[in-house]
Every structure is written in structure tokens, then in C-alpha cells.
Amino acid sequence: MKLTHLLTSAALALGLASAAVAQDKTKVGFIYVGPIGDGGWTYEHDKGRLAVEAHFGDAVETVYQESVPEGADAERAITQMALQGADLIFTTSFGFMEPTLAVAEKFPDVKFEHATGYKTLPNVSTYSARFYEGRAVQGHIAGKMTKSNIVGYIASYPIPEVIRGINSAYIHAKKVNPDVEFKIIWAYTWFDPAKEADAATALIEQGADVILQHTDSTAPQAAAEKAGNVVTFGQASDMSEYAPFPRVSSIIDNWAPYYIARTQAVMDGTWESTQTWDGIGPGMVGIGEISDAVPAEVKEEALALKAAMADGSYHPFSGPLNKQDGSVWLAEGAVADDGTLLGMDFYVEGLTGEIPN
Amino acid sequence: MLKLEKRPQPSRLWTWVTPILAVVITMLAGGALFAALGQDPVEAISTIFWQPLFGEFAFYYRPQLLIKGAPLVLIAIGLSLGFRAGIWNIGAEGQYIVGALAGAGVGLAFYPTESWVIFPLMVLAGAIGGWVWGTIPALLKLKFGTNEILVSLMLVYVAEQLLAAMALGLMKNPEGRGFPGSRNLRQYESAHNAELITGTGMHWGVVAAMIAVILAYVLLSRHILGYHIRLAGQAPKAARFAGVRSARLILFCLGTSGALAGLAGMFEVSGPAGQVSIDFNVGYGFTAIIVAFLGRLHPLGILLAGTLLALTYIGGELAQSNMGLPAAAIQLFQGMLLFFLLAVDVLTNFRVRLSRPEVA
Amino acid sequence: MMILSSIDPVLLLASLMVASTPILLAALGELVVERAGVLNLGVEGMMITGAICGFAMAVNTGSPLVGFIAAAAGGAVLALLFALLTQFALANQVASGLALTLFGLGLSSLLGQGYVGIKPPPTARLDLPILSDLPLVGRVLFSHDLMVYFALALVALVWALLKYTRAGLILRAVGENHEAAHALGYKVVRIRILAILFGGACAGLGGAYLSLVRVPQWTEGMTSGAGWIALALVVFASWKAGRVLLGAWLFGGVSVLQLNLQAAGLAIPVEYLSMSPYLITILVLVIMSADKSRAPASLGRIFHASQ
After folding, report:
1. What is the mean pLDDT of residues B253-266?
2. Which of B114, B268, C100, C151 could disulfide-link to C45, CB 3.0 to 4.6 Å?
3. CA angle, B91 as apex, A95 and B349 as ends, to 5°?
């Protein structure tokens, strides 16, 4: 048995070596969880890939595989890419974490970048974006623009990232509008236009006139447009075909700067395993053009908020803040630490309803 | 004018030729499809069928064939028993999920104890879980006459929601930082469905599939129950005269196919997949239906058909990443395969005759 | 009950009618097919093919009406494949239906490659001057888009056709006893093919409603099992057109209600709420089967005229 194991590793190494010798271009691979035409999450990652191609020209070759299911198929897809000689592989979904690590162990000379994960290896980095900064801007605009004081939120799964977003949006809506109420629907999907349309409609029928979403399709914008005076925000990509109304702004995932930087690091030989969590400042989180449907002074305030977060002078989770059960979370002047944020599993004070499970 | 004349007995020759003919026609039609998509048809077909077996990295892909094919064969064997008797279990996907949940649940309950007895218990749990999920439509059919196709299918959606509930709630990894998904069973020694011989892809699920093929063959050809199954499908009235108790048959077929699907799910979750996650199920329960028909509901045929379909999956992925062929094209390809098989199958039971219009 | 007060029953009913339209259309088509004695499990495939055909044509021509016509045609063409397989090649109906579903899913994904994320032309909403503004009834009955009314009209049409016309009688005869019908000189195969095509067209329309009105967008696999629900509906309705309407409302209603309950703050775990439509369908199926209403006697059996 041991001999077979040895032979297999040798064969793998040989395969990799021969592939590596065969080319001097840096090969960068991308594993996508959805189709590149989804207009949201995967679409933006692919834009990052195209930016890498444009930036490096002939020195870099990119390959990708889309709609890869998480699990055993993912491991095979990643292994395939490594066997074909990729030097750097981006795996763009949380669910690829275990497959990425498993393949990374078999290919120690290939570098891996895992999006939104938390486990690393010497050849595996993780990266994610501080989307909650974008939510702060959205919450501010929402609080100011809602007339019914009901804001609808289409949440996906009860994971820390989504809860952070809800909390951040709520804190900033409440700051400018103490009467605001959030109604939350858990769609249990990242992308399901039919369900998102139904969820948006249900929220609108219950009085919401602003819809925030953590799901990736434009269906809520379409539902809002049908209903009339409902404000929405683009998610993951600009969704500008619904501007200037109902979409008044958006959060844009901008992976290009990071992807280019990491590819450069591999080419220079300076690549190291890191855990990156960037926000508006480094450019990973983009705020979409705030449309003219937003009153001028609200727009100014939102942009000021954005600038303050960009230069680090303001943190969306600054005290005094209490948890939903009334206990003190952050004292006056304190700022949330990354650890708590990464594992956030509680609502802040004022939010009604419970987090599922 | 072409006329179809029923043969006195299904032709033995055509029984074996039709699948091969169907595959060939599908390759031609598929090639035309790929050409229409702007790809070189020969390269596409060879990437799908040849590369995984004999190509540059075949040493990696051949074991993957076993990994991908094992659940398909295991589930299809179970399904074929029912299909032969006219009992349509369309809910194998749901039974697969419930079996996986049951098996993983048992494994996680024992964490972190290490013991050799845990894995066999998980196997048992997986089989029982799938068996229960398959028996529900059976009981409803027996007691109320409810159509088993629809009930077993609705239960698939229920099972999917159950999977989400487990992945996000009860089975969520307490050390997982709030993210959905259970512990990784591959890192839990006693629960890991490891490869028996490293690098060959042969895990316990593959072994189970082989055993299932042999047992099914013996059952269908030598055992009285197998005879009843075959009779019930071909001549229901005669079966009743022969004393076949349809209630027993329904319970047996649906229960067994449920158990086998549950086993497949359990082996998958503790092996190649590794954890209970929301998107754990990838449609094996439905693809197994194609495998069952492609294999002419015969155990050996199913073994071959399962390997063939696994080949189209793996080769298809290769074509996707090497040639940029869209994933949907492969799905279409598999649908075409079943279509052509069903169409060509007419030759097994009927003879084609040219006839002149009758003169009055 | 304070939570529930935030749910507006009028709006809920209106949403229910919209939600039920796709499955209503598909189920009506399948009802006719099954009454003729054919079991076509490929409804999901035909629906999604209709969804992409309708979407693509609507986007290309700018007219949702053209889209719907194209959707009906697309569904019918796919159904034709099924008809050829089962009526000429005498293939097993269950397997053929499944093959159709798989084929339809793959075909639609392929055809839809260039259409993801595109906004389709909006379908007109009925806006009757006084009637639409009536307090309760206006929103529920008079403010929908045309397809909702079409679907309702189709229910009446199918019911009347099956019950009162000679064509309907012949169709039912073929479904009950195809041997006898053949002996009487009726063209069993021809009638079944027509029924299958009708079923395909209806399923296509149902799918297009999803992609052009209800969402409206194109995504791979967007029917998410609606075709299977439609099949369940036909059994639930004991093959009677009027009951199909009730069933569609029930199923559409449960899905919509589930989301509204969540938004209103009800603390039932979401996954169990999401399970409810399917569990209720099973429950209803059980009750209906115990009702001893018979399926058409020749349903699913292969007909081969042996002369």
C-alpha cells in the first residue's frame, strides 16, 4: 500500500513538473461556484480575472471553470487545474474551503487563494471584503429615504457575514431615523430570482418601501420597479440598468486590485500566505454611483460616511452599542474587533426577530 | 410504409446491441451539437470519452471514475428492482440525502471517540435512513393507493429542506465560526470512508456497489423473489395468479432501493464529499434513473452504464475546462443518450417491416 | 395575532393568483394529456424550455406576446419528441418523460447562455378605469396581467371541452379504453399526439409566465420543480379541471404565505416553513387517493394497434 502511495505522489509530482517546465507564462486559475453570466457574485470575480489578463498581457494566462458544485466535484475541478499547470488558483466560494485545503496539501508548489474562508496553509491564503462598510452607507440612505419606516431585508443564510450586514445597516438607519423597523426574510439561497422576487413582494406588501438584499439577482429590483415607490440597492454588482430608481446605489465587489497584486506576488516570488480583509479603503468594496433620486444632502452625508470609513477615521461598529438582549457589547469610544465580527452571531439592540438556529 | 410487428419474444441480439447503438448515435449527435457550438467535434468527443481513460492525467481520472460511478451504480441497482416490477421510485435523491444525514449523524454523535465500531454503525444508519424514506411512499401506496412517483418526488424536496436545516442547525460544526456545514468527516479517522488502496479511488462505497451488482444478479436470476419481480412487471395479471403478493413486492422494492440510495449517500458524505453541507446533493438520484434504463435494468448492464455515465461526467468537466464547453452541453448530451436509447429500444421488442398499402 | 395583522389579506390573495398561474397552466395541459391516457412526466422539461424560448423571443422582438407564442411553440416541439418516442417508438412512458425533463433542462440551459441577467420587456397589467380601483375586489380580480385571466379562461375552456363536446368525449374514450376506441375507428395515436402537443404548449406558457412576468428573469433551472408540482396537481384534482384551479391556489398560496409569515416575524424555522408546500401536497394526495377517484383506465399503458 505504501508503495502505491509513493508511486502516486511521484506520478503527480512528475505530471506537475513536466507541466511547469512546458510553459513560462504564469498560469492563474479561477474556480467559480456559479455561471459568469449571473450578473452578481461570479460575474464580478470574472471581471477581476479579465482585469488580470488586461494588466499582465502575454505574461499571464488565465483559465476558469464555472458552476462548480461544492464537495467532491470541486476537489476534482481544482485538482484538474493544478494538474494542468496552474501556478495560482482562486477558489471563489466559502464552500470550496475543504476541497481547496485537500488539494493544496497534494500540490505544495501551487498557491491557492480562498475567498471568504478562514483556514490557511503555507500555500493557502484567504481573502474577503468588509461588505459591512457598504451596508453602513446603505443603511444611512435607507433610514433617510424610507417614508413608511419599514425597511425590508432579504437575507440569505444566517452566517456571520450576513448578520454583520444586517447589523451594520440597521445601526446606521437607526442613527438617522429612530423609528425605523427592519423586516427580515431568510431566503436560504444566494441566488434564486423567483424566490427573491417573491420575498421582495412579500416585504413590499407588508409595508416596506426600501429593500436591502444579500442575495445576488436583480429580481428584487424588478419587483420594486413593478410596485412603484420602493428603493433598492444593487448587490455584488452595480445593477445600473435599474438606476436611477429603484436602484439608488449599490455595493460593488471589486476584486481586480487584489487579484492583480497577488498575481504579481507570484510572479515576483514574494507570495506568502495571508488573511486579507479589505474594505472601501483599499478599493475592494465599491459604492455604486448614488443616483439623483436621493436628496442632495443625504447623498453628501453618505459620501462623507464612505470617505470616513475609507481613511479609517470611522468604524461602522463603534460604541456605545448593546446586543439585542440588552447587554453591553461596545462601550463609548470602543470599536469592534475583527474576531468578534468574524464570528458574529447576535443582533444589535433594536432589531426584532430572531436569527434562525 | 414502415410497420412495426411485435416479436414473439424480445430479441436477445438487440437487447445487447441497442445500448451500444444508442451510444454511437449519441456520439454523432453530440458531435454535431458541439460543432454547432463552434467546437471541434472530434476533439470534444475524444476529450469526453478518451482522455479520462487514456489521456495525460488518466492516472488521476481513472480512480475518479470509480468515485463518481459507485453511487450511480449502487442507486441504480436498487431502482432497477422496482422498475422491473412497475414500481417507480423517483425519489432516490431524497433517500440518498436522508441516508447521508443518518450516517453522518451517527458519526458526529460519537465524535471525538475513536473506535472501529463507529463506521459499521454509520453504514447501518445510512441504510436504515434511506429505507425509512423509501418506505413512506410504499406505505402510502399500500394503505391509500397514493401514486408513489409523486410522493417519493415530493419527499425529495422535503429532504433537501431537512438537509439545509441540519447543515445550518443541529449538525453545524461548533468550531466552524458560525458557518454552515458539519465537521469534516474525512478528518475524523473512525468515520472516514477512506480509500482501501490509496490512489485507486476504491472506497467502501465502490465495494458496496460491486456487492450490490452481484447480489442483484443472483436475486433476479435465481431467487423466487426475483422471479416475482420480473413477472409482476411483464404480466401483472399472471403474477397475481401465480400468488405474487404485490404488497410485499412494493415494500421490498421501495424499501431496498431506499436503503441502497441511503447507503450511497452515507458513503459519499463520509468520503468524497466529507461534510454535511447545504449543496451536498448533486443529483445522483436522478442520474441513476438514466443509468438503470441505460443498463436495461440488468445488474451487469447497470455496472457498464454507470461507468459510461461517470465517464461523461468526468470527461465533460475536462471538456469544460480545456475547451470552454458549457456545462449545459454535457447535461444535454446525457439527456440525448437516454432519448436515443429509448428510441432505439423499439427494435428489441418489435420488428420493422416494409409493407405495401393493402389493396381492397 | 398582532404579528399577523401586518399581513394584508387582499394583497396576499392577489399574490396567490399570480403565484398559481404557472402551475395552473402546466397542470391543465397535463390534465388533457392524462385524460387521453398518456402519462407525460416531462412537464418540468417542457416548462423550462418554454421559459427560455419565451424569454429569448420576447427580448429579441421586444414583445412579450410574441414571447408567449414562442414559448407555447417551444413546449410543443419538445412534447413532439415525447410523442414520437411513446407513440411511434412505443417506449416506456415513465422513462421517456424523465428523458424529456433532463433533455429540456440541458437544452434550456444551453439556449439561455446569452440571456442571463437581461431585463425582459414588461408585460402589460390590466388597468380598467373604475373596476381596478375598487377597494378589495379591484386589486384581487381586476389588476392582473393578461396571462392570469387567460389561465382562468383556459380552466373553463378545458372543463367545457371535456364535458360537453364530442371531441372531449372521444378523448376521454381513448383514455379509458384505447383498444375499444381503436375498434370503433378512432385514431388513437393521432388524438394522443394532439393531446401531448397541447400539454406541451400549456407547460411552455406556464414556464414563460415565470420568466417574463413573475420573476422576471432567466436563470438556469428556474422552474425549481414547478413541473413536478403540476403533475401532483393533476392527481390531486382527480383529473377534473375545476379542482386543478383549487389545487393551484392552494399550492401557490402556501408558498406565498410562508414568505409573508417570515416577513411578519413569525419564529417558525424557515426550512420547515419551506417544506410545508410539499408536505401539504403529499397530505392532499393521500386524502384524494383515499377518495377512490379513478385515473383514466388506460393511463400509462402502451397502445399498439395490432392488425
Report:
1. 95
2. C100
3. 125
Residues A206 and A302 in one domain: yes
C-beta of residue A40 within 8 angstroms of C-beta of residue A217:
yes
Q: Tell me the mean pLDDT in the region B2-18.
A: 75
Tell if the CB–CB gap between A199 and C259 is shorter than 8 Å: yes
- Residue C147 confidence (pLDDT): 87
Q: Which of A40-44, A65-69, B83-87, C115-119 has the lowest mean pLDDT?
A: C115-119
Q: Do the chains contact at A188 and B164, CB–CB below 8 Å?
A: yes
Nearest to C6 among A184, A207, A218 (CB): A207
Domain count for chain B: 1
Rounded CA separation C75/C67 (Å): 12
b/e A20-49 (16+ beta carbons within 10 angstroms → b): eeeeeebbbbbbbbbbbbbbbbbbbbbbbb
How far A65 CA sits from the closest chain B CA (Å)? 6
Given a cut of 70, whether residue A13 has pLDDT beyond it is no
Among C225, C252, C274, residue whose Cα is nearest residue B278: C274
Bridge-partner residues for A251, per DSSP? A287
Give the chains touching C; criterion: ≥3 Cβ pairs < 8 Å: A, B
ipTM for the complex?
0.79
Listed in sequence order, the residues at least 6 apart from A121 whose beta carbon sits closer than 8 Å to its beta carbon are A101, A104, A105, A112, A273
Residue B287 included in any domain? yes
The mean pLDDT value of chain B amounts to 86
* Structural domains of chain A, count: 2
What pLDDT is attached to residue A176?
A: 93
* A35 touching chain C per CB within 8 A: yes
Using the predicted structure, report yes or no on whether residue B92 has a pLDDT greater than 90: yes
C264 closest CB neighbour out of A192, A193, A206: A206
Q: Chain B: nearest CA to A198, how far in angstroms?
A: 18
Residues in chain C closer than 8 A to A194 (CB atoms):
210, 214-215, 222, 224
> Same structural domain for residues A102 and A151?
no
Residue type, B284: Y
The residue among C155, C190, C157, C197 whose CA lies nearest residue C171 is C190
Q: Are residues A107 and A216 in the same domain?
A: no
Domains of chain C with CATH codes: 3-117+129-290 (1.10.3470)
- Model pTM? 0.83
More confident residue, C10 or B100: B100
In chain B, DSSP assigns E strands to 2-6, 195-197, 202-203, 350-354
Among A81, A109, A129, the domain-final residue is A129
Task: Report chain A's mean pLDDT, rounded to a whole number.
Answer: 86
Please report residues of A whose CB lies closer than 8 A to that of B184.
98
Q: Span A313-340, mean pLDDT? A: 88
